[in-house]
## 1
Amino acid sequence: MYLEHFQLRSQPFCEHAAAAALWQDQRMKEGLARLDFLTTMGELGMLTGPSGVGKSALIKRFLNTLTPQQCETVYCHLTHLPSSGLMKLIATQLGEPPRRGKDRVYEQILERAGRAEGTLLLIFDEAHLLTSESLTDLRLLLSSALDVGPPLKILLAGQDPLRGTMKRAQHADLLNRISVRYQLRPLSKLQTTQYVDFQISQAGGDAKIFGEEVKDLLHDFTGGLPRAINNLAIACLLQATAAGAARVDEDVFRQAAAEFQLQ
């Protein structure tokens, strides 16, 4: 096992790390600042970026900064559901047995928002999967929440096609309500090096396990996407362990990368 081989005390490059152990770079700081503004002054936020770029990690870190008194949150990633099912799911996650009829579920969600101690924030991950009907219903929720205090707020987080969807004429009203938007981009070459070093150090290892040239290759082959970096870095550690190598050099990297059909 590569943990023993490299004398690591924990799993590096973990997909589901605790919020306190998540890598934070300038991209994350900028994203957190915008999400913080959403909870205090905004109404609708949109977070976009390619798959594996770190949107869910940013949301996790953001949620870790909130207190129940400041903001009550509902996180939903089952965005592929029909609109009626999505509304019922929101009500259920708010601790309410869904009422019959979509209009009554609307009222139920708004009533629940009115009883929230702080702001009620609905977070929809994988929002690029939301149907047009669901987006319309979310706009109606926001419109109906004007007289609700504390206010109801929504964050849409999804892959890049979400931006195109929001530009359609039928969603113009919803697009105009977006007060906070952030495009999370892949890591730069320098950030990739820092990210790899951080993950290895967090696991109790020596950053020199990965050669500097390998860190550059990791960036080039993955495009700087953290999830892809995680998967390929683990493959490199496994390959080095199988070969009895003390570090991940270019030969080890290329053997591991070949399994991903990246060459």
## 2
Amino acid sequence: MGKTLHLHVGLPKCGSSSLQAYLIRLRPKLLDQGYDYLDISDSSTGNLTPYVKSLSPGGGDIVFRHFNSGRSTENASDELFAAIDASPAPNLILSAESVAKRRRTHDFREITDRFETVQVHLALRPRVEWVVSHYAQGIKTGKYRGPLETFLQSPRFQDHVVPMLTFADHFSYWQDRVGPEYLHLHFAGSRFPSMVDQFLSAIGLQSKQEMEPAGRRNQSPSAFVLSALATVRRQNRAQFLKVQKKIIRLAERLDPSP
């Protein structure tokens, strides 16, 4: 009997970090139920992220290397395929929010063709919330600086962010790839169950309260702290990443309304 792949493709800023942290923490319990969240990355990223980063020139961006100093992308492809072949579980789980960004240049068939069935999990979020969260993350990682208004008027917003927010395009792409019965939509936001609960329900497992409580991950700093990060003078992203925790600690002490 062939294996089933559950492929979580993002979008970014839609609860991926919480889901990935939960899956790696619950890996032994998931294995007991026939689901293998492959152990091919550290806990700070999705397990498919090193492979996706290896598709980029230079093996990934500076933020990935900063937060995954012990993880190389050079052998990510070999490690991924070896882990797929070695897993005894009938159901495998792979997750990387950056799959959504790479689908225009890489169709991932070298992965999906290894499985009899592929179930794709696509997460969406209200666009305004998504943009604010994306901007906040960009400030934290040194990608952006300056006020939100400047970011919204920038060429990067029009060329890179707006296409990401064309949700119908993402939906149509994956529906054509796997068929409507194998595409699962998840929604991030206070009106919906947690991303973990939605994912577990889609693959036919218990809710997180029944398996184990999941902690929140990747919460955004307050507007005051973000303003401090946005206005700090920086030489380059590597230098900024090294001092950002110190800046956040200092700004949090002065925050009038944390």
## 3
Amino acid sequence: SSSLVAIQRAVMSIRHEGCEMAIAGGSNLMLSPMQHIMFSRVGMICADGRCKTFSAAANGYARADGVGDVLLKPLADAERDTDRILGIILASAEHHGGGASSLTAPNPHAQSRLIAEAHREARVDPRSIGMIECHGTGTKLGDPIEIEGLKMAFDLLYRERGLAPPAVPHIGLGSIKSNIGHAETAAGVAGLIKTLLAFEEGTRFRTLHCEEPNPLIDLGGSPFM
């Protein structure tokens, strides 16, 4: 999430500190085998080099090099300068991961609070959302916990607006890690760039290597598909 935190800080600087323009993102270069060896020893790396997000075959993540950044400006300034606007950040939120038993077992309650906070600030009707770019590392335990956090957040957002649960799922879930691997400190901005490309192409890109869903993931009664 490092690159997303950088983007969040840039957004806050533009909104509250008089910053007129910012370039924010992250980079990840695998210049030494030491981290790969360490992550392999604790069971975080998949043996076959495929990140199987939300899959029953999920067995860890594939590491990736990556560099990405975005140029951020106030919307009025971008319109005035006739910039090519790829997307608009309505709101952003940053949160600690919360108390958890391990690095690979995040806290769904902390995640749900973060998601709900961002949506409240954006004043977005949850029924209008068509896709969510997830963290989705491709681990048997982490992926279901992330989905549980999303379900808790959207259940709350629907109830706060007095809305009944959706009769038909309308939010596609995906993760760019199934396409390019986990770029670690550049993973967040990679997901943001993928989302911008989805806007531009008008399509939801398929999440790969997920022929059979993780049996611990239950999307029943949720807005997700």
